[in-house]
Design brief:
single chain; mainly alpha
């Protein structure tokens, strides 16, 4: 009895260590390849083969097809990806996830002891290095090593005669393919990880507990069970996001049905082929997983459009599915992949900036054209900006709690300040509208000279707006000097325009009432320029401080010069 309890604890401990190792490997790879991940998803196109490649590589980096699929559901829900693109990426994700099975199968080649040393090597690398990227690589190596430690524990647990005999007896009696598939579905759904279930099957196969002919059907079941995570993630999402989860299910279900029929009829032949491919029992199971996903993808690639149409028929559009107030680039499902979440929230903030820019145009035009025709549009846009501001703030708080790299932590910290600056710019559009309304009510008009000066100053601020957003979106440090110069020009314009207006007042060309509105407008434009400067300089200083950013840039340049001089002196 004691032997049974110890073996069960070893099995559970091994599974826990395995899943912890997988998580560490995933986070380490993901964080070390952060920039590459962002570029990877930036290359998504309508080319189905390129998108399949993106899905495969992304899944290798996050070490989970379920995580990739959930992320894709988030992209579709945010309207960033078409259903056809999502289908191709999901197909690629199913291929990418087979690498985990192959890695797990390596435990059958007596490499576990050597691979387990990687856990120690990874810890040493993480602790000894001060380089952030090397620390992440060390974390990934630790995770890989822990995976083999977990597999070793599980293998030892299955050596227990009591457990081995009991499981052998079960699988000899439960030899019906549909029951075996059901076991794979249920266990994978409970673990929320096809890789974990694959590891159990691979380990049992290596221990001789489950015959290969039965293991194949359990593996088929894991491919359907992994869809549960995506289906749960689609709850509360848009119709297209639900269709994406349906496509994932259809893909795996069609492949499973096809292979079930094929293997059921040619069971002994399938086993014979796999035995010829490898002498190792574990690797046979892993190879079957690879064959299943590659063949299913190749079989369904020509039918991607019919597959999306079928998903569209099965998941109907609901009335009122679209809301006027919505986020454009972010979705909580994307939080599963922090590097992508940071990239997406940055896009959302940039889009918020564009919204504020357009609304500022409307507000100023209300003054320049003495027209309140766009009053409703200004108010509606201001409501949208406030909605996005609150949504982004909540998202940033959630993102801050994730396992971020140092560079991403700084970006998230800076974005809190940026959305505040954009929201205040948005308020100025509303203030311009109020100025226009008050001037219309009191019959106040600017002279031609005054209006020309205001238009000139606004044109300068408008140009600065475009340049600031460009610097922010592209993290273009070279553009910071231009932003600083533009802010100085706007400050100078405010002083010049203020003096000119005093001269007009003294000469009787403008009324006191005009002066009040004129000063309010040029002061508002000067404050908008300040906010724009903060937005641009946020790429170097979280608070948007010019001084802090310039000092940082100077230190970086000095460090580079020192490195270059050192290299010259020590060829």
């Amino acid at each position: 009895m004691n032997e049974l309890i110890i073996s069960i604890f070893m099995l559970l401990a091994g599974l826990g260590v395995l899943m912890t190792g997988m998580k560490m490997l995933s986070e380490g790879l993901e964080r070390s390849a952060g920039t590459s991940m962002r570029k990877l998803f930036g290359k998504i196109s309508n080319n189905r083969f390129a998108s399949i490649g993106v899905g495969a590589v992304a899944t290798v980096l996050v070490n989970s097809s379920a995580a990739t699929t959930v992320m894709v559901i988030g992209f579709v829900n945010a309207g960033l990806m078409s259903l056809l693109q999502a289908t191709a990426i999901i197909m690629g994700a199913n291929i990418g996830t087979t690498l985990t099975g192959v890695i797990i199968a390596l435990s059958g080649f007596s490499l576990s002891t050597y691979m387990a040393v990687l856990a120690f090597a990874g810890v040493v690398l993480s602790m000894a290095s001060k380089n952030d990227k090397i620390k992440k690589i060390g974390s990934a190596i630790t995770g890989l090593g822990l995976m083999f430690v977990g597999l070793s524990f599980m293998s030892d647990a299955f050596k227990s005669q009591i457990i081995a005999s009991a499981l052998e007896s079960i699988f000899l009696k439960v030899d019906f393919p549909l029951v075996l598939i059901l076991i794979g579905i249920v266990c994978t759904a409970l673990f929320q990880s096809s890789a974990a279930m694959t590891a159990i099957v691979v380990t049992m196969s290596g221990a001789g507990i489950i015959p290969l002919s039965s293991a194949l059907f359990v593996i088929l079941g894991t491919n359907i069970g992994t869809c549960v995570t995506a289906i749960l993630a689609s709850f509360g999402a848009s119709t297209n996001a639900k269709r994406t989860a349906m496509i994932h299910l259809l893909f795996n279900a069609i492949g499973t049905v096809f292979f079930t029929v094929l293997i059921w009829i040619f069971r002994s032949q399938a086993v014979w082929i796999l035995e010829r491919l490898s002498n190792n029992p574990q690797m046979r199971v892993a190879l079957f997983h690879v064959i299943f996903n590659v063949f299913t993808t190749a079989m369904l690639v020509p039918f991607m459009k019919p597959l999306t149409r079928l998903a569209t028929l099965l998941v109907r559009e609901k009335e009122g599915d679209d809301s006027a107030l919505k986020m454009y680039y972010i979705d909580d499902r994307i939080l599963q992949t922090p590097v992508i979440a940071v990239a997406q929230v940055t896009k959302e903030v940039a889009h918020m900036g564009v919204m504020a820019q357009k609304n500022l145009d409307r507000g100023f035009n209300a003054i320049a054209e003495r027209s309140l025709a766009e009053r409703e549009k200004i108010m509606q846009q201001e409501e949208k900006i406030d909605f996005v501001n609150k949504g982004v703030a909540r998202y940033l708080i959630k993102t801050s709690s994730l396992n971020l790299s140092r560079s991403d932590e700084k970006i998230v910290g800076a974005l809190h300040h940026v959305i505040s600056d954009i929201e205040r710019i948005g308020d100025h559009a509303e203030n311009f509208l109020e100025e226009a309304e008050e001037m219309n009510e009191n019959g106040v008009t600017f002279s031609d000279d005054a209006m020309d000066e205001l238009k000139n100053m606004y044109a300068k601020v408008r140009f600065m707006f475009e340049r600031s957003l460009h610097v922010f979106e592209n993290r273009d440090e070279n553009g910071l000097a231009e932003i600083s110069a533009l802010e100085s020009e706007v400050d100078m314009l405010k002083r010049v325009l203020g003096n000119n207006h005093i001269m007009r007042l003294n000469s009787g060309n403008c009324s006191v009432e005009c002066g009040t509105h004129f000063y309010a407008i040029i002061s508002a434009l000067e404050r908008v320029a300040d906010h724009l400067t903060n937005i641009a300089f946020s790429i170097k200083s979280p608070s948007g401080s010019q001084l802090e950013a310039m000092e940082k840039i100077a230190r970086e340049h000095a460090k580079k010069r020192h490195g270059a001089n050192k290299a010259e002196n020590n060829p």
